[in-house]
Amino acid sequence: MTLADPAALILAGSRGGEDPVARYAGVTDKALIPIGTDTMLARVTAALRNAGIERIGVSANSPAVRTEAARLGTEPLPAAAGPSASTADALALLGAPLLVTTGDHALLDPTWVNDFIARVPADADVAVLLARRDAIERAAPGSKRTYLRFADGDWSGCNLFYLATPQASQVIALWQSVERDRKRPWRIVRRLGPALLLRYLLGRLSLSQAVAHLGRTAGVTAAVVAATDGLAAVDVDKPADLDFVRARLG
């Protein structure tokens, strides 16, 4: 897929209260957790730059994270009430195409970024990278992730989204409702409607069919890209994830 040079957004806002992973690591904010000699935010920023992305915004409500974002030469942006609202604000400011990831994606690799963008269908307004359970279990045995079960396998998110066109803004309202239910997959599936829900319950609905339907509901063309590396689904949500990442990176 040949597009204008994308900008990128790193979501590094706090959900409120003390983050248990930050506490475990002995820092104030998860994005500031040291991985080797770098913060997680620095690692994510470096991966995006090595993928050829020059303009990078960091959405954060912590003064310490915003200071780190400025030190890294990115654009500190105020965080909104949640990731989807922060993404809406960033899309309005940075424009499309916009790659969206998170500040706790410590293993992010520039080859994943470039491969994802290259495989976004030409007609897609928005695309999401997901990984199959078998790929994740091969790459990260023992890692506990949240899965959606479909006819073509069990899938988990990779915290990589591509807003290819300005029309992608239409999907953000749907994203906000999905965001509220991210740990309750059955509520996400319920949005498919009776006919597709029945196909899902009978094990006859593929993930790509479900995402395409949800996209049409939002008035956009939405697509799924399958991750080539199961590690792309590993972010730092729990202390065990941090231990895994640090061990993986030596």
UniProtKB/TrEMBL annotation:
Keywords (A to Z) from UniProt? Magnesium, Transferase
Which InterPro entries does this chain map to? Answer: MobA-like_NTP_Trfase (IPR025877), Nucleotide-diphossugar_trans (IPR029044)
Every copy of the MobA-like NTP transferase domain together lies at 8-133
Entries under SUPFAM superfamilies matching the protein = Nucleotide-diphospho-sugar transferases
Q: Name one GO molecular function term.
A: nucleotidyltransferase activity
Q: Does the keyword Magnesium apply?
A: yes
Instruction: Indicate whether Ion transport appears among the record's keywords.
Output: no
Which Gene3D superfamilies does this entry report, sorted A to Z? Answer: Spore Coat Polysaccharide Biosynthesis Protein SpsA, Chain A
Xref: Pfam families: NTP_transf_3
- What's the name of the protein? MobA-like NTP transferase domain-containing protein
Q: Which organism is it from?
A: Sphingomonas palmae
